[in-house]
Amino acid sequence: MSLYVDIEKKLGSFCLQVKLEAGDETLALLGASGSGKSMTLKCIAGIEKPDRGRIVVDGEVLFDSQQKIDLPPQQRRAGLLFQNYALFPQMTVEQNIRAGARREKEQNKREAMVQTVLERFDLLPLRQRYPHQLSGGEQQRVALARLLVSAPRILLLDEPFSALDSHLRFRLEREVRQVLREFGKTAVLVSHDRSEVFRLAQRIAVLDDGQITAAGTKAEVFRAPRTRAGAVLTGCKNISAAQELEDGTLYATDWGLTLRAPQISPKTAAVGIRMHDIRAGGGENSCRCRVVEEIENPFSVVVMLQPVGGGQPIGWELEKALWETLRSDEVEVALPPEALLCLED
Amino acid sequence: MDWFPLYNSIRIALISTGIVFFAGIFTAYYIARTPRLVKGVLDVLFTLPLVLPPTVVGYLLLRLLGPKRVIGAWFLQMFDVPLTMAWWSGIFATVVVIFPLMYRTARGAFESFDETLAYSAQCLGLPNSYIFWRIRMPYCRQGILAGTVLAFARALGEYGATSMICGYTPGKTATVSTTVYQLWRTNDDAAALRWVLVNLAISFVVLLAVNLLEKRRQKGGA
Predict the structure, then answer these.
(1) Which residue range(s) make up the domain with B184?
(2) Is B222–A147 a contact, with Cβ atoms under 8 angstroms apart?
(3) Model pLDDT, residue B220
(4) Which residues in A lie closer than 8 A to residue B117 (C-beta atoms)?
(5) Number of Cβ pairs closer than 8 Å across A and B?
(6) pLDDT tens digits, one per residue of B43-82
(7) pLDDT tens-place string over residues B157-177
(8) A3-223 domain in CATH 3.40.50.300?
(9) pLDDT at residue B214, rounded to an integer
(10) Domain limits, chain A
């Protein structure tokens, strides 16, 4: 029903320092590879041991370095879904799931649980197969079934779709979303895919080099990432170093533009704007730009704009049809102040 | 033809392989969890019999188990059981000689094990003994099986250390390999040849078994 994590772990020069809280919801840890996402999950599950800190699930202390509490993984009841699903290769689908149900000591009950979950995940036709005879999607279904039959208190999903082909992801994502909804308790999802996180989670924490740089509801984190890393991870492609000028405007060094922005703070070191937030035509923060490249996407086009007077190009994403009406060598665009992200380093 | 040497050889080889099967597996499993320095030293120690001449192993065993040496004398006094020059002495020699074969192949197998399988099993609440016997061992089955067969084959052929610690007493401590030597030494060429043929037949059967196991494994998948 709840998760509280406040841990520290040093690994060579890497330092993981994470503080998280979540209720009956899905919390996503969004971060690049090597940012410490998976390590955090392993610490919660009890596979890795933090140097310091405290982990509490549903009011039960799983780890507390001061009280010298460190429950073994078996007693933590944290259902961890591994990236490669970690199905036992020498067991059939049914045996794998039966192994997951071994916490239930009563034979009849256990068998009923196994049959229920086999049915729920459409695994009855596959029950006699071995993991290497299954497709990636089927393996994930078996892994999820095995996880749920073990009656975990919390679900931990480590990059659940990374091992799958892209055309499978969308379908399995729906399946995982359904599982999360049925589970109804705390789940932590680790991912580097911002859209996946946006679709599956209610809360997001952005992890960068072992530190949490942004946390909140997904709306908050996506609308206003506080840091450069947060902006990058939530999909902001246009970022420029910036400094505040005396008149309260912001000078974007890489682009050579002076911009008005509403949320400049003394810590502001960069400014960003999402590719689809740029508007055609004049207005506040407008500038003339030379078109240096057009990149066609299936349903939109990205136009690379170089502000007149030099500077790094800015990407602008717009509807193909709209671009057809605007196309020329030089265009006037505006960077609306309310769309600008003032970022710390 | 007196079949005792064959019976004795198989008896010694079976018991020794049984002992080494468990000892080698557990040593291989636990040595992976020791600090690096300890691991290095123990690894050398456990592999040593593989490169030592069997006569050196025999000599060292006699120094330990002989009737006038510490362990041997104590056993003789407490249980009235001699540890040398009896058929079971061959077990001591064989165990020491074949241990490295089992230990090293088991260690190689364990090192190839995907630890995330053990982690996920722990998270599912499976006890460590279950993980060892039902997940780790089946996963490493091929390597362990290969090590066991190899150890058994080597046990059947063990000569040097065995002849030193068992001697050669017909009907008591004679094994196939010591019998071949004894018959050749006493110029009984025809009898020696018979035992050589027996030896060849055994080796042939063992290697055939290894190949059949290999084939079945490939067919069985996983």
Answers:
(1) 4-220
(2) no
(3) 47
(4) 86, 88-89
(5) 68
(6) 999 999 989 998 999 999 999 888 788 888 888 888 888 8
(7) 888 899 899 888 888 888 988
(8) yes
(9) 66
(10) 3-223, 236-343
Say how many domains are in chain B.
1
In this complex, do A84 and B116 lie within 8 Å of one another by their Cβ atoms? Answer: yes
Interface of A with B (CB under 8 A): 42, 45-47, 72-80, 82, 84, 86, 88-90, 99-100, 102-103, 130, 132-133, 146-147, 150
Residues (pLDDT < 50) of chain A are none
Beta carbons within 10 angstroms of residue B141's beta carbon: 14
CA distance linking residue A98 with residue A150, whole number of Å: 9
> Which one of A82, A144, A154 would you mutate to disrupt binding with B, by most B Cβ within 10 Å of its Cβ?
A82
The size of chain A, in residues, is: 345
For residue A261, give Cα distances in angstroms to A250, A285, A333, B134: 7, 9, 16, 62
For residue B43, what are its two tokens?
A: 């690894």
From chain B, pick out residues whose CB is under 8 angstroms from the CB of A133.
Answer: 221
Using a cut of 0.80, tell me whether the model's pTM lies above it: no
Q: Which chain B residues have a beta carbon less than 8 Å from that of A77?
A: 125
CATH number at residue B36: 1.10.3720.10
pLDDT under 70: residue ranges of chain B: 213-222
Query: Does A74 contact B126 at a Cβ distance shorter than 8 Å?
Result: yes
Check residue A186 and give its pLDDT: 95
Instruction: Give alpha helix (H) positions in chain A.
Output: 37-45, 73-76, 93-100, 107-120, 136-149, 166-183, 194-200, 218-223, 228-233, 320-326
* CA of B142 vs chain A CAs: smallest distance (Å): 12
Q: If we measure between CA atoms, which residue out of A116, A121, A93 comes closest to residue A104?
A: A116
